[in-house]
Amino acid sequence: MLDQLPAIIIAVPLIAAAVCALIRNETVCWLIALVVAFASFVGSATMLGQVQKYGEDISYKLGGWAPPVGIEYKVDLLAGYVLVLVSLIATAVLIYGRQSVKLEIKKNLHGWYYTMYLLCMCGLLGIVITGDAFNAFVFMEISSLSMYTLIALGKDRRAVAAAYQYLIMGTIGATMYIIGVGLLFTITGTLNMADLAMRLVPLLDTPAAISGMAFIIVGLSLKIALFPLHLWLPNAYAFAPSAVTSFLAATATKVSIYLLMRYLYTVFGFGFSIERTPIPEVIMVLSLLAIFAGSFTALFQENIKRMLAYSSVAQIGYITLGIALANATGLTGSLVHIFNHAVMKGALFMLVGGIAMQVGTVRLSDMAGAGKAMPLTMFGFVLGGFSMIGVPGTVGFVSKWYLAMGALENGWWWIVALLMLSSLLVLVYMGRVIEVAFFRERPVDAIPLKEAPKSMIVTAWVFLLACVYLGFDTSFTVGVAEQAVNVLLGGVQ
Amino acid sequence: MEGLNELAFVLGGVNHWITVFLIMAGLYIIVSRSNMIKKLVGLSIFQTSVYLLYVSPGKIIGGTAPIISDDFTVYSNPLPHVLILTAIVVGVATLALGLALVIRINEAYGSIEEDDVYSGEDWN
Amino acid sequence: MRGHLILRVVSKILIPFLLMFALYVQFHGDFGPGGGFQAGVIVAAAFVLYALIFGLRAMQKIISPALLEIAVPLGVLIYAGVGVYTWILGGNFLDYNMLDSHDPSHGQHLGVLLVEAGVLLTVSSTMLLIFYTFAGRGR
Questions:
Q1: I want to staple A320 with a disulfide (CB 3.0 to 4.6 A). Which of A97, A287, B82, B86 is the partner?
Q2: Interchain pair C134, B100: CB under 8 A
Q3: Is-contact A212 A181, C-beta < 8 A?
């Protein structure tokens, strides 16, 4: 049973998705999805534990075909870490989202919602677990296509237009990725990532390998929404149903970053991609631009979901900044931030979902006085805001600390200064929301407000408490991240 | 002789030239057109370039379909074809979903021009 | 298309052959180019031809959209079911060698046959469902 786990966490969501499509009863589908997502979480955590305990990667031969001919599922520390993240978020969003899904999505589509949700989860887990370059593309498209559908399920007509925008950009990204893989396949004749890494060593300087690498990185950057390829992200986040936004914001971009790291460190290798190409410099400039352009744009948003979406663009900048720092500490920072950002942004979007449910809109001006009527939601917002700013004692501080230390290791003190400055911007845009919610009176003629349903508040608060807990006890996030970095850099440093 | 070398360079990689042309044509259509259906056409052309990129190196001149038989010794590589079959299916699914979205956009906005859909106060 | 006698007669002749060809492509997948994807599209093409000539309503009387919505996930389940069965037999997911205890290559034949049947069902019904959805709108 245990050695079948890699296939189980992919195949069971797929089967469950088909079953949900057959049943289409809201309660049953929700239960199935919840059980499956939780089982995936348990499975992922078990695998991560095993990898940590025995110190060797889990390899699974799909269909009994040995790699590099067959498709290999491979779980190492990094993969296990991201698997745990994705399945955890998927489970939490299911618990959180039931009420808001009932409200925001048409009744006859509920069954399809859970079908698509499970397919999306299956795709995201698949991207992480597969050790095959082409298989990763297939899973990427499974997750993306179901994600476009999930976004378009929103009642708002802008949701459909946003999904279309995401579809065009996402498909360009995936196609670029597959062009890059094709170029590598042409010169090496293999698609297995480990095998690819080995056969690429003598070929790294050929034009085909370099252009393949360029295609892969640009394609994945589109999926990551790395500035300036982030244009699909704000609309997709802002107009998708609340539960979908929480799931999308916490997982989709993170998984693409994982894949980017796989290529940079495992396939091309640290010695080539980071030390011998200008990739770190390019990513550095783009990350800093992302941080500042994202935060500045967030300052001027009326729609809170859009504001948080632009803030995500900025936060993705922090994660890629860690790659650009090109040392172990910086990379640890970006791995930690993948988890931390998913937890805090997930929580914030969950709270916004509650606000959307009660206030009816997510416009800042309609939220006046919400602090008094919805204290739990708004205090949660304050706590999440602290974490985003990076106040000590929250997760935001931990990741920024590692990024700053990584920068200092290179002697780049100006990066530290820029990090501080960007935190100030976060303070301003999160502060705007808090100011309106707590210090403005609710207009007399406005509808009276009450707290969002318990399931939503509780899930969001569990995440917020995790933000604080993981801010003090970093043994899980930093511990696993440091070990994973050691493996990724392979003793280079 | 030099001219001959260049000719060989151009003709030898003719499949790649077509691939490059398809990539550029597809991307150009996606960027330059405002009509959503035309954008999807561009997207399909862009994806088609991938099919050619994979399949053309898999063909070995004189090779047959890769079914093992005593009569043949040279076979084409079957792997690219299988991969591209998957990519085609993905492409069809993307196109179908894209068209479905365009239909719903048309029903909601009464237009499939991006300039009409993504403008106005709706988007702030 | 009521008046187009030639079209109606020709399509009536063609459709059985189309379906036959689809089955040929499906089962020839073991020995040559072919398989569930291609066969599924050909099956769908035959039905689409029928719908184009005799009208969508006549087509939906034969195969209703509700039936197709069941067929799509059912195909996926056949596929995944083979995988689950190989699990039960103690092998890896989709390890066809397990399917026949005497000769692994027979197991491979059987596994591909079953999986391709699932693919045929899903692809043909998806294609037809896409056609229904697009053709049935905006009247």
A1: A287
A2: yes
A3: yes
Structural domain contains residue B90: yes
* Span A29-55, pLDDT tens digits: 999 999 999 999 999 999 998 888 887
List chain C domain ranges. 5-135
pTM of the model: 0.93
Task: Give the ipTM.
Answer: 0.91
Do C93 and C99 meet the contact criterion of CB atoms below 8 Å apart? no
| Residues in chain A within 8 Å Cβ distance of C98 | 64
Q: How far is B78 from chain A (nearest CA, A)?
A: 12
Q: How many DSSP H helices and E strands does chain C contain?
A: 5, 0
The answer to whether A66 and A35 have CB atoms below 8 angstroms apart is no
Residue pair A180/A215 in contact (Cβ under 8 Å)? The answer is yes
Q: Which conformational region is residue B103 in: left (phi greater than 0), alpha (psi within -120 to 50 degrees), or beta?
A: alpha
Alpha-carbon dihedral angle through residues B24, B28, B30, B32, given to the nearest 10 degrees: 180
At C116, is the secondary structure helix, strand, or coil? helix
Query: In angstroms, how far is CA C137 from the centroid of its own chain?
Result: 24
Residue of C102 and A318 predicted with greater confidence = A318
Q: Which helix (H) or strand (E) holds A59?
A: strand A58-61
Nearest CB to A62; choose among C70, C76, C92: C92
Spatial contact of A478 and A332, defined as CB atoms under 8 Å apart: yes
Return the residue in C93, C97, C126 with the most chain A beta carbons within 10 A, the one to mutate for interface testing.
C93
Q: What is the pLDDT of residues A274-308, one digit of tens each?
A: 888 888 889 999 999 999 999 999 988 888 888 99
Classify the C-alpha dihedral C110-C113-C117-C122 as positive or negative: positive
| Rounded Cα distance, A112 and A424, in Å | 42
Distances in Å between the alpha carbon of A410 and those of A285, A291, A398, C90? 16, 20, 19, 53
